[in-house]
């Protein structure tokens, strides 16, 4: 049900300067005013959000948020929706990246298009129910297993996006050269998928036999279609693995600053300080965006270490200090690459706070930005955030401050997107299956 005119009072905006409470108005689905309140407003006209069931919520034009936090919809900029929730079919005994890849590859031909489509729909809708309203998913397109297997995932992904488009936006970046970009016909395949509606070019050059050839190939493809590139980079504990070096060269060569993203960058943490400084400086010059994937790095990396096991994740603080955008994202959810997770960015925020030592009062703002504004910039989301004129796309969380978000990980959330409330985990009646709540 459309509800594009709305007024909410007693709102906490932890990302706004000054703290305090706010009164916000939405007109035609856009923020039309953002006003700081003098203090708590007592109003009979505004109905308390905690008392509204979902049907009442969808028709009430004046709502009292009762001092709860409101954030722009989270942007989960690095996911694998096609693999999510596959753990019942494929596990990982060693907990290493290589076993995860091998095991997944051995079963992927047995996954039907319908099964992959259902997994994407489920994981995207669950993410939306937690407040993530823009998702970027990498896709497994194992071209060496045949065109049909590779196209199956692309078709499933595009169909799933169509099914959930009224709830959440999805961008797709297939990992075209996970193994090698040398397979006959792979360029034609990739071009065809970009014409079908795929958004950008993905890959994992550190896993390819010739990383530089793979990166060059990615740029030829991306520049021909003027599409962004998002590569898995150096997901390894080995300090000698540094495909980011050549990636930066190519970003500079092609003027791809702002259009290129590097995920993981684990080996950067294992390098000597001088070499890490050189690469961080180069990334800043190139204008590359970065994504840290703390839960998956903590799970997959450091598996050869004993005693002081490395954390695996990249140098988050140093990258931020160099002015490089660093987003935090989910990566894998309940699959052989990561057995836990649910697409909840608050969990990711909490894990980032621990793993990157970002837990002071000032760091909290950084963590919240790594889940919202920074990934929005990396994903190129237009008109993002709670500002006048921007589309109103937000999540209300059952917490009274930004800090409480990470202290309590509140389960109760209300999600508004595309001119209507799309989800509410009601206090009395928790929906365990968002899909059932979402679809008519
Ligand atoms: Zn990934």
From TrEMBL:
Which residue numbers delimit the Amidohydrolase domain?
A: 187-399
Q: Which UniProt keywords apply?
A: Hydrolase, Metal-binding
What molecular function terms (GO) are annotated for this protein? Answer: deaminase activity; hydrolase activity, acting on carbon-nitrogen (but not peptide) bonds, in cyclic amidines; metal ion binding
Q: Does the keyword Zinc apply?
A: no
Pfam families referenced in this protein's UniProt entry, alphabetically: Amidohydro_3
Q: Which PANTHER family match?
A: BLL3847 PROTEIN, CYTOSINE DEAMINASE
Protein name stated in the entry: Amidohydrolase family protein
Q: Which organism is it from?
A: Paenibacillus monticola
Its lineage opens with:
Bacteria, Bacillati, Bacillota, Bacilli, Bacillales
